[in-house]
Design a protein that fits this description.
Elements: E1 20-23, E2 26-32, H1 56-62, E3 79-82, E4 99-108, E5 114-120, E6 123-124, E7 126-131, E8 134-140, E9 146-149, E10 157-166, E11 186-187, E12 191-197, E13 200-209, E14 212-223, E15 230-235, E16 240-245, E17 251-257, E18 272-278, E19 282-287, E20 292-295, E21 298-301, E22 304-305, E23 308-313, H2 327-339, E24 344-347, H3 354-363, E25 366-370, H4 382-399, E26 405-412, H5 418-434, E27 439-443, E28 447-449, E29 452-455, E30 466-469, E31 486-489, E32 495-499, H6 518-533, E33 538-541, E34 549-550, E35 563-564, H7 577-588
Parallel strand pairs: 23-24, 23-33, 24-25, 25-26, 26-27, 29-31, 30-32, 32-33
Antiparallel strand pairs: 1-12, 2-3, 2-4, 4-10, 5-9, 5-12, 6-11, 7-8, 7-10, 13-14, 14-17, 15-16, 15-18, 18-19, 20-21, 21-22, 28-29, 34-35
Bound molecules: (2S,3S,4S,5R)-3,4,5-trihydroxy-6-oxo-oxane-2-carboxylic acid.
(2S,3S,4S,5R)-3,4,5-trihydroxy-6-oxo-oxane-2-carboxylic acid is lined by residues 180, 349, 412-413, 469, 499, 544, 564, 566.
Length: 592
Amino acid sequence: MSFNFNSFSQKQIQNVQDRTTLSLNGDWQFIIDPYKMGYLDYRQKPFDESESGKGGFYDNITNPGKTKRAEYNFDYEPSLTVPGDWNSQYEKLEFYEGVLWYRRNFTVSLKEDKRYFIHFGAVNYESHIYLNGKKLGVNKGGFTPFQFEVGDKLVDGDNFLVVMVDNTRKKDEVPTINTDWWNYGGITRDVNLVETPESFINDYKVQLAKNDATKIKGYIELDGSAGEESVVVQIPELKINQSYTADASGKVSFEIPVKKIQLWNPEFPKLYEVKISSSQDAVTDKIGFRTIATEGKNILLNGESIFMKGIAMHDENPLLGGRLRSDGDMRMMLRWAKELGCNYVRLAHYTHNETMLRLADEMGLLVWSEVPVYWTISWENEETYKNAENQLSVSIQRDKNRASIIIWSVGNETPVTEARNVFMGKLVDKTRSLDDTRLVAAALEVEREGYTITVDDTLGEKLDLASFNQYGGWYWSEPKELPKYAFDIKFNKPVVITEFGGGALAGFHADDDTMWSEEYQELIYINQLKMMDKIDGLRGITPWILVDFKSPRRQNPVYQQFWNRKGLISNTGVKKKAYFILKEYYRNKSLK
Ligand code: GCB
């Protein structure tokens, strides 16, 4: 049997955090397998597909004890902590790109009338999952969750889960081979065994209707329902207590009029407790309610124009040089943004941890959420498109109840061609079909002629924002020259600058003509902010980037050493001079 991309993908259970779970985080033993020998036979055929039965390594690894010729044994191998990338945990693996096998033993006492799912928060990039020696399926996409129902393969007592992870970069994948961030491999987010009743609340959306603060609109979806089941939505603080009967497919759609609702905004990030229950199941969430829309060149949050004081960030803990692993790591990043005076963050360039979005809800930060359609994706390849669309859809599915997310971005700095316009145009349409309550955007590129910077990428016509990156003072022109530039933006839409900036090594001081000095970066910020303030309709910025981040492309032996130095904060937590320029700008900038 062959396992194609996502052939086993199921609709993600909403709000895993609030379910009955057995955490499978912790120590997982691992085997490094650079030749992919556990997966391919000596003719390079997958053992999974071999008619003649399984080979040595494969059986050893996915089903230990079943073969005599044991060349591999997890029991004698070291372990890695899950969640966490492998690169930052084991020195030999810092630059490793390839296959690594993980194993976790666990014990469960099964209950008769329950269903069980194994849920992965994210595994980068391709993963093959085996439970007790039987294959559950395959997932591609390094930043989005996936799950498998496992009731028929789980046993009462001792079980073992084996995961083959392959983070080899490939041209037709999403992202493609070329990115400006570290290709952290491994089981980077939580793993849980989720227990549910036979009929459970699989999904729900509870949000304000499109641009209408007078009603909550949403749906509930049961899985395994025999039909005609009753479901209840309660928001005690709003005195909402509504009962419905789900249809034969287990679905209920509803609209609930609301009065006197306190809307969510960055200054008062009010979250309401929302309880959803069915005859067998119950789940509680904390949900904020707000509207978002554009009107001409304005962005309207709850009907009022807002300026978005933002900063971009990666899903990386600079102090560890690894992916963010815990609430504490994530809070540190968002605290840094708040301290800078931000009301908005760009979570670049892929789907971040669900906890990050929940913290943004709680801490009051608007969010730009993105998928890794980055630079030169294989625009003409139908499988690549499906993969991108899947990552986008799963991301929207997971985060649709987060008030903080106001923008879905379908990509970053993609080169304009007909094929790209079709690919990204389809992603825009897909986004709108899945969620009509948020804005849709992409980080576009600019063109330059003389001192004019033009924004007229045709994709912009399909987007809600004129949003683009521009590197004046760094990749082009000197910081000193910036005052000569002017923008020509062809869209009558709110302008959001998704990137600008330049690199500096914290602690390196020189005059503002000396590249890599804090003074050089400071002058870029001073002049960029002045230049951008002249733009009619400038409604937000997310300078690149909050903190230095690791990138294999950044090799200057003196200043970079595999770190992209465009951070306003260094990888040791030191604030650079430009940080204070931006902080002061935000302090004085009106929100209106
Ligand atoms: C960009 C990319 C970003 C890079 C940045 C840079 O335009 O969107 O991912 O890291 O430039 O530092 O060059």
